Amino acid sequence: MEIKEIRISEITISEHNTRKDLSAGIEDAGIEDLAQSIKENGLLNPLIAMDNKDGTYSLIAGQRRFLACQKLGLQTVPVIIREINESTEATILSLIENVHRADMSPMDKARAYEQIYLRYNDYKKVSKETGVSVPTIKRYLKLLELAPSIQDQLTTSDGPTGIAALSKLATTFSSPEEQVEALKEISGFKQQIQLEILRRSEGDLDKIKDLKEQAMGGAFAITVCRGLESCTFIPEELVDVFIEAIKNIKKGKK
Q1: Cα–Cα distance measured from residue 166 to residue 111, given in angstroms and rounded to the nearest whole number
Q2: Integer Cα distance of 164 and 161 in angstroms
Q3: What single string gives the DSSP state of each residue in 164-220?
Q4: CB 91 within 8 A of CB 22
Q5: DSSP 8-state symbol, 102
Q6: N or C of the chain: less Cβ packing under 10 Å?
Q7: Cα–Cα distance between 181 and 101 in angstroms, integer?
Q8: What residues does 237 pair with on adjacent strands?
């Protein structure tokens, strides 16, 4: 690995760059803001690219920084040159660069995880390569089963952000029309309540409205107290787990 000053004209954005939706996260800092920051402070983090061995370079990570430097009219930028042997490795590198960033589109993450999973067909391998837990990877992959209209909302900066609930939505309802209708009903609730409504609905859209009314009445939360001075809130979706654990403890004592 080496760092070189590369002419911007010699750099193109690789198809393996996992960040596709540049509009995600612009409420915090758009390309214009980033360009102004680079103008005032310089490019603090080099771009990452692979050498195409023909005088050009494919950008793997740092797309927003690259576009900001273009906007400033910079002639050269510092680039970390990586030796990459296959497309999957390039996708992994790009994903690792972006995956922990809150401003990366959830759908971009989902598609990147899908590419890596298709390569290895092993969730644990994907987890090892990316440093992301298996349950989280599975939740993101479930987003690919959502109705296109819901996916479109997820590619914008003001779209739904409850990945766990949306994953549960895709698991509970397979029909795009039912997914859209169910999401419309549960929107506005906190994620843990959305999860509980979906769990209790058992995939029956007719139950959603009744469960929504129950949720508005605060039915899906309990408080366990050990004396007046020690109370612990337990989300309803964990109640069954909590009860089962108590049963196992009691069995162990017998």
Answers
A1: 15
A2: 9
A3: HHHHHHHHH--SHHHHHHHHHHHTTS-HHHHHHHHHHHTT-HHHHHHHHHHHHTTTT
A4: no
A5: T
A6: C
A7: 30
A8: none
What is the mean pLDDT of the segment spanning 139-152? Answer: 93
209: which 2 tokens?
Answer: 């409205």
Structural domains in the chain, sorted by start: 2-161 (3.90.1530.30), 221-253 (no CATH)
Q: How far apart are CA 59 and CA 12, in angstroms?
A: 6
* Cα 221-179-168 angle, rounded to 5 deg: 45
- Phi and psi at residue 81, to the nearest 5°: -90, 125
Around Cβ 165, how many Cβ atoms within 10 Å?
A: 24
Q: Strand 11-13 vs strand 57-61: parallel, antiparallel, or unpaired?
A: parallel
Edge-to-edge strands, sheet with 11-13: 2-7, 76-82, 47-51, 57-61, 11-13
Q: Within the chain, what is the greatest distance between any pair of CA atoms? A: 76
Distance CA 144, CA 212 (A): 26
Instruction: Please name the amino acid found at residue 76.
Output: T
93, two tokens: 């590198």
The structure tokens listed for 58 are: 């494919």
User: Comparing 219 with 206, which gets the higher pLDDT?
Assistant: 206
Q: By the 8 A CB rule, do 80 and 2 touch?
A: yes
Of 86, 63, 142, 133, the C-alpha closest to 110 is 142
Q: Based on C-alpha coordinates, what's the Rg of the chain? A: 23
CA distances to 185, 199, 211, 213 from 207, rounded to whole Å, are: 11, 11, 6, 10
Contact between residue 189 and residue 200 where contact means Cβ atoms under 8 Å apart: no
